[in-house]
Amino acid sequence: MDSENKKETGANISELAARAEAFLFSEGEPLPARRLKQFLECTDAELDLALQELAHRREGSGISLVRAPNEIGLAVSPLCAPQIRKEQEKELEREIGDAGLEALAILLYRGPSTRSQIDYIRGVNTSSTLRTLLSHGLAERAGNPEDAREYIYSPTAELLAHLGVADAKDLPDYAAIAPELAAFEKSEGMHESQE
How many Å apart are CA 123 and CA 126, to the nearest integer? Predict the structure, then answer.
């Protein structure tokens, strides 16, 4: 019976590890540990064992499990990091393009926004655009206090300084554009914009 319980516990941990990997992959960004625990419906000890199992599975692959004190995520492994870094440096040399300018305009005239809010306004997925803006130091992200599953993106102080304004409200036509953007969101039935 005791060996039966150990076998069952091992299978449960293996399944938890697989589900943890799936959640981390589907989010595409690190998750707070408490949120992952809620998704998996497990205890702290079970989460720890599942993450150890997942880290072991990822050894020698292109993806590693990364554990910070309060967040867990998937990242490029040290084995592949130099090649990825080389490609990212090429990305930094590229212009941000029209998609980047549109996303920046939303952040500047709408204010702090989630990726889903930016996606809704632009009508397309902005994941790669936001990564480019983050890598160029034009946008920053912080945890969303209303929903731990997503981030809030904002323009950086460096961007405002580059534009020659101390506050986004000092941008050209801000008083006209910001209300129009809010009216568009309201008329399209988008969830409440954040203050």
Answer: 9
